């Protein structure tokens, strides 16, 4: 909205013909500097911005002559300035790649929107540093502007200076919602509000604290430029290794393995089950193109989760609204968009570092993934009526069958693990010839392991049904993880004993199942192979956390 009313006059940014506030150029540690004479401020109504009515027009001839091809949004809540700065720095490095290809004029066609979810939730360090740069003004403190549902917008151009190299200037719009309404609502204000005025070709979603590599964003852009059938794409999200923290190390294995095998396979078939909101890109026309049958666009379905009193089923579906958006992009009647994984585009993000934080996150993810799969099957007719070819529909149908099998295996994971324990440990301990223990001692040891396992499983069910916050029972979950680590060590020991005397074909099958990850990692990148080798022992030891504890909790 503020962009549509901006013009330049007499060296000052003006808004609707009236002079906006100006502020002298301020440099923060000689790194960030305002590249214009000031900023333009306007207070907008979030309810108006979020509407999809075509009657809402803020465009001017100036706006139309500077159509933005790429708009990047950084969604934030209460993150500190260090996290926001790291994301902005990554964006600035990426702009150099755009400038190298298209020249300085491309900066007039790029826009970065910093979307803050709640004025009072904004971290003091973030607000202070943005004010020092000159991106925020005193209007934010004016009580006349602090009306519920409003959005404070500050527009300017910002440069970043790294040694002798200068980046930018990048057009930056800081949008601060007066009320905290959630990330999905922030996306609605951005996609249904600002983007309808700017009408970009591509939109890139980024979470505050997620740091794209020097060419990560540019590679997402290139992927969609090369293939007009790509409606959305995502790169690889990775994390900083912390070998001293086992929770982080297990997630490092998970993230790497998921991208090397899962995302790559899904991309070949044409449908990626989820493009993460923390780091993904979309063709804006694909998001807004309406279905010839229902008359709704993928964005309309994406924002259905903001409705109130939708019931428990739909509430669980929209725990993973990113998955709904991906399916709706694919299943548009009359369109044939595909989703793609771009392996060379890498971004680093933060992950939970404690057991209680991971339990909270995975409960949302696992429930959302399960109910999103239900949503897909309910709307399969819509998918088969899309403009995709018969061959592509068969491939994606095969992929959905595979996802269903994997989901079922996750649900019965504790049962499979118990059967594995039963055959490898329980029966072996009772075999005097294999372990050299008397039947009485072997039976006693086996019974202790058996009943303790069942008891711990029952404890997990009680905690899950109680629905208490993980932080309140953190000590019990830490004890559970330690118990299962010991239990897994016992299972692995007996597995080794069993495999030594197993037929060669079975040994070859087991080695191939595990070796596949490392072979794929080496093909993907030799550096990934080293990461998988380093994190594999920890993940193997704590795998019961992902097979038993997290599914039961969810």
Describe this structure in words.
The chain is built from 20 helices and 15 strands. The chain is of the alpha+beta class. The strands form two sheets. Strands 4, 5, 6, 7, 8, 9, 10, 11, 12, 13, 14 and 15 form a twelve-stranded mixed sheet that branches. It has a three-stranded antiparallel sheet with strand order 1-2-3, with no helix packed on it. β2 and β3 form a beta hairpin. α10 packs across α12 and α17 packs across α20. The two termini are 41 Å apart. The N terminus is likely disordered.
Rg calculated over all Cα atoms: 26 Å
Helix content: 40-55%
Please state the overall shape, judged from the principal axes of the Cα atoms.
globular
User: What amount of the residues lies in strands?
Assistant: 15-25%
Query: Class by helix and strand content?
Result: alpha+beta
The total count of helices amounts to 20
In total, how many beta strands?
15
Which ranges are low-confidence, i.e. pLDDT below 50, for 5 or more consecutive residues? Answer: 1-30, 52-65
The overall pLDDT, averaged over residues, is 82
User: Biggest sheet, open or closed, and with what strands and sense?
Assistant: 12 strands, mixed
| Terminal residue distance | 41 Å
Descriptive tags:
disordered N terminus; three-stranded antiparallel beta sheet; 554 residues; alpha+beta; twelve-stranded mixed beta sheet
């Amino acid at each position: 909205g503020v962009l549509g009313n901006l013009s330049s006059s007499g060296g000052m940014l003006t808004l609707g013909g009236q002079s906006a506030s100006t502020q002298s150029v301020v440099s923060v540690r000689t790194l960030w500097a305002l590249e214009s004479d000031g900023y333009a401020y306007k207070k907008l109504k979030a309810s108006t911005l979020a509407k999809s009515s075509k009657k809402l027009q803020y465009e001017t001839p100036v706006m139309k002559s500077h159509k933005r091809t790429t708009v990047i949004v950084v969604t934030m809540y209460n993150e500190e300035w260090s996290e926001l700065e790291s994301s902005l720095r990554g964006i600035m490095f990426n702009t150099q790649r755009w400038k190298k290809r298209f020249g300085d004029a491309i900066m007039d066609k790029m826009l970065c929107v910093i979307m803050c979810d709640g004025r009072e939730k904004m971290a003091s360090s973030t607000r202070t540093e943005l004010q020092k740069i000159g991106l925020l003004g005193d209007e934010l403190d004016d009580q006349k502007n602090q009306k519920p549902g409003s959005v404070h917008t500050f527009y300017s151009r910002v440069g970043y200076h790294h040694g002798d190299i200068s980046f930018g200037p990048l057009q930056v719009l800081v949008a601060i919602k007066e009320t905290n309404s959630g990330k999905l609502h922030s996306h609605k204000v951005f996609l249904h509000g600002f983007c309808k005025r700017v009408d970009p070709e591509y939109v890139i979603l980024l979470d505050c604290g997620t740091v794209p590599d020097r060419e990560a964003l540019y590679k997402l852009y290139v992927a969609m430029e090369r293939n007009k059938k790509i409606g959305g794409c995502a790169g690889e999200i990775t994390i900083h290794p912390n070998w001293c923290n086992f929770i982080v190390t297990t997630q490092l294995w998970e993230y790497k393995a998921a991208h090397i095998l899962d995302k790559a396979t899904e991309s070949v078939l044409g449908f990626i089950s989820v493009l993460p909101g923390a780091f993904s890109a979309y063709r804006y026309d694909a998001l807004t193109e309406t279905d010839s049958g229902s008359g709704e666009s993928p964005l309309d379905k994406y924002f259905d989760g903001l409705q109130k009193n939708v019931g428990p089923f739909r509430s669980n579906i929209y725990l993973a609204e990113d998955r709904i958006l991906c399916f709706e992009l694919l299943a548009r009647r009359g369109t044939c968009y595909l989703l793609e994984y771009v392996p060379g585009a890498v971004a680093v993000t933060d992950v939970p570092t404690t057991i209680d934080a991971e339990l909270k996150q995975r409960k949302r993810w696992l429930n959302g993934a399960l109910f999103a799969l239900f949503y897909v099957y309910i709307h399969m007719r819509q998918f088969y009526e899309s403009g995709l070819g018969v061959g592509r529909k068969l491939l994606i149908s095969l992929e959905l069958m595979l996802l269903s099998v994997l989901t079922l295996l996750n649900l019965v994971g504790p049962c499979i693990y118990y059967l594995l324990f039963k055959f490898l440990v329980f029966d072996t301990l009772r075999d005097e010839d294999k372990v050299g223990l008397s039947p009485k001692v072997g039976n006693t040891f086996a019974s202790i392991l058996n009943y303790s396992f069942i008891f711990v499983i029952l404890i997990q069910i009680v905690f899950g049904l109680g629905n208490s916050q993980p932080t309140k029972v953190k000590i019990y979950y830490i004890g559970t993880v330690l118990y299962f680590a010991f239990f897994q060590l016992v299972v692995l020991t007996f597995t080794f004993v069993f495999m030594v005397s197993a037929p060669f074909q079975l040994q070859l099958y087991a080695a191939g199942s595990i070796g596949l990850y490392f072979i794929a990692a080496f093909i993907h990148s030799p550096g990934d192979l080293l990461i998988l080798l380093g994190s594999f022992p920890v993940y193997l030891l704590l795998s019961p956390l992902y097979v038993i504890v997290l599914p039961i909790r969810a």
